[in-house]
């Protein structure tokens, strides 16, 4: 495990911290970071923090991992992140690789040639599997996960956060991160607004057996899915089908629907209930679209569905949350290890909130395009034509797969602020050098140095690296923080992202 040499207390910039808690709460800090929620976002964040020896506790309210099998797609950028941490080889055998195209409003178009990634495919994988693998990864790195522990309250003061569990137990940490999903307790207790649109269309989803032959189902599904986009019966193996059908009404209930609800809706939409029986699990989801007004209040932060929700069209929610965690992990670790520049932690919201805004917008657009009304159908036909232009198709794929993201790092070449694709370097591949979550100077000039930042930033001098520019400085999340060949300019940017040099 990599251990930072700079351990002095950070000159922390903590805004809006409520008045200090009572003296009795000023117990010693048990942890550096407590994470509420062990979904994909919480588990990924815990692992990222552990790369920097941060003491992490994940509190998960459920005693057992979720049982219902949502198949999610890991898009290109998430696959790249997994490769950057050496996780991709572990994940790949559990999923099915599919072409990366055809996800925008389910408009079937081929993948444009030369998509800029070494991992240019979609990996279909059950969500419980990805959750388990990420949790195992976090635990292997030393994170503590406690199940059956719901965060019920907290108070923050100038030294830390006192977290109260549902059973009354109290724990202290320097920071608390709410990765506790759409109905986030942490967000609500923080009083952070969650403006947006309520659900307009609810959908029933479940797995169950059917009572009619497969050919009959296939014929009916082909007939109905021409007019209803939120409808399918897909064989899942062992006689089980995945069933998706619009719900009768919009509901904010947390309780799952009944088999009777499915039967009624199948009859309404398809004229038959397909003899469905013996459900494995039944669930309901809506298309509410909301974005947290703030991602940070003092020592408490939000990530994943706790910060943003949107319809699952295009399969982006889990990807977005995991990418939030990747952005936040090294910054929060830097704050705790003592080398964070004053405003580094605030760049988390500055960078990630606009990305979520964009995802919310593209799902709003896709929702319209899935409407069966004549106006949206006409727009869909027009967009389908436009997507025959390679650049339009490419732009939409880069949006959904998150490889088109460019953070605003100021004036500079187009590559500045973007993620760098995996490339061949003399020691193998670039992402293979990023497993420890440190910065990296990729130097084709062989005359630069990372000097006093070598405890946080690696240096690879490689004139053969497949780059169009002399040198790049990569942040631990793989985004390009600097491009150039001048040592003084490099030092200024090392300070900007990695704080003061050691020694
Ligand atoms: C039908 C459907 C299909 C989808 N398909 C895709 C897809 O293809 N691709 C994609 O990227 N996304 C997809 N999504 C979205 C994806 O499932 C979510 O975006 C993702 O689960 C968010 O992860 P998270 O960790 O932020 O939150 P969650 O997965 O909701 O995890 C939050 C965790 O916090 C726990 N928790 C809650 N309250 C507390 C508390 N007070 N204390 C402690 N723990 C608490 C919960 O038990 C839970 O384990 C889909 C969603 C649906 C409904």
Automatic annotation (TrEMBL):
Cofactor(s) recorded in Swiss-Prot or TrEMBL: FAD
Region of interest: Disordered: 1-24
Membrane-spanning residues: none
Keyword Zinc-finger among UniProt keywords: no
GO terms of molecular function: FAD binding; oxidoreductase activity, acting on paired donors, with incorporation or reduction of molecular oxygen, NAD(P)H as one donor, and incorporation of one atom of oxygen
Pfam families tied to this protein: FAD_binding_3, Rng_hyd_C
Gene3D superfamilies according to UniProt: 3.30.70.2450, 3.40.30.120, FAD/NAD(P)-binding domain (3.50.50.60)
PANTHER family per UniProt: BINDING MONOOXYGENASE, PUTATIVE (JCVI)-RELATED (PTHR43004:SF19), TRK SYSTEM POTASSIUM UPTAKE PROTEIN (PTHR43004)
UniProt key word Flavoprotein: yes
Name of this chain's protein: 2-polyprenyl-6-methoxyphenol hydroxylase-like FAD-dependent oxidoreductase
Source domain of life: Bacteria
Keywords attached to this entry: FAD, Flavoprotein
Domain FAD-binding residue range list: 31-363
Organism: Nonomuraea jabiensis
């Amino acid at each position: 495990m990599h251990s930072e040499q700079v351990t002095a207390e950070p000159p922390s910039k903590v805004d809006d911290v409520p008045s200090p808690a009572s003296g009795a709460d000023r117990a010693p800090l048990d942890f550096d970071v407590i994470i509420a929620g062990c979904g994909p976002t919480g588990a990924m964040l815990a692992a990222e923090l552990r790369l920097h020896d941060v003491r992490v506790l994940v509190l998960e309210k459920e005693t057992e991992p979720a049982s219902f099998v949502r198949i999610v797609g890991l898009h290109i950028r998430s696959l790249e992140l997994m490769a950057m941490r050496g996780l991709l080889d572990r994940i790949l055998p559990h999923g099915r690789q599919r072409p990366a195209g055809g996800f925008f409003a389910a408009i079937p178009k081929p993948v444009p040639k030369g998509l800029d990634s070494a991992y240019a495919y979609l990996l279909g994988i059950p969500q419980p599997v990805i959750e388990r693998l990420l949790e195992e990864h976090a635990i292997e790195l030393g994170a503590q996960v406690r199940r059956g522990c719901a965060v019920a309250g907290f108070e923050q003061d100038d030294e830390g956060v006192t977290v109260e569990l549902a059973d009354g137990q109290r724990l202290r940490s320097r920071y608390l991160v709410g990765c506790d999903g759409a109905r986030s307790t942490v967000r609500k207790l923080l009083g952070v607004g969650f403006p947006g649109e309520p659900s307009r269309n609810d959908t029933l989803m479940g797995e169950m057996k059917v009572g009619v032959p497969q050919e009959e189902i296939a014929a009916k599904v082909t007939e109905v899915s021409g007019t209803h986009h939120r409808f399918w019966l897909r064989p899942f193996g062992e006689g089980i089908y995945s069933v998706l059908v619009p719900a009768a009404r919009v509901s904010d209930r947390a309780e799952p629907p009944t088999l009777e609800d499915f039967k009624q809706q199948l009859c309404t939409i398809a004229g038959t209930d397909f003899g469905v029986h013996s459900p494995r699990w039944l669930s309901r989801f809506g298309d509410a679209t909301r974005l947290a007004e703030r991602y940070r209040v003092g020592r408490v932060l939000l990530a994943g569905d706790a910060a943003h929700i949107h319809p699952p069209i295009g399969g982006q929610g889990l990807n977005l949350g995991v990418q939030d965690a990747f952005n936040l992990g090294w910054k929060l670790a830097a704050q705790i290890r003592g080398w964070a520049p004053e405003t580094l932690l605030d760049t988390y919201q500055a960078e990630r909130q606009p990305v979520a805004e964009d995802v919310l917008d593209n799902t709003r657009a896709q929702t319209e395009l899935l409407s069966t009304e004549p106006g949206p159908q006409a727009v869909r036909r027009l967009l389908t034509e436009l997507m025959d232009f390679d650049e339009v198709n490419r732009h939409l794929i880069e949006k959904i797969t998150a490889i088109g993201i460019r953070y605003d790092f100021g004036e500079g070449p187009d590559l500045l602020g973007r993620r760098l694709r995996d490339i061949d370097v003399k020691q193998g591949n670039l992402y293979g050098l990023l497993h420890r979550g440190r910065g990296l100077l990729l130097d084709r000039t062989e005359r630069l140095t990372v000097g006093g930042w070598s405890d946080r930033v690696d240096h690879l001098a490689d004139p053969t690296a497949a780059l169009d520019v002399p040198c790049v400085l990569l942040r631990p999340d793989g985004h390009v923080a600097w491009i150039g060949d001048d040592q003084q300019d490099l030092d200024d940017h090392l300070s900007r992202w990695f704080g003061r040099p050691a020694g």
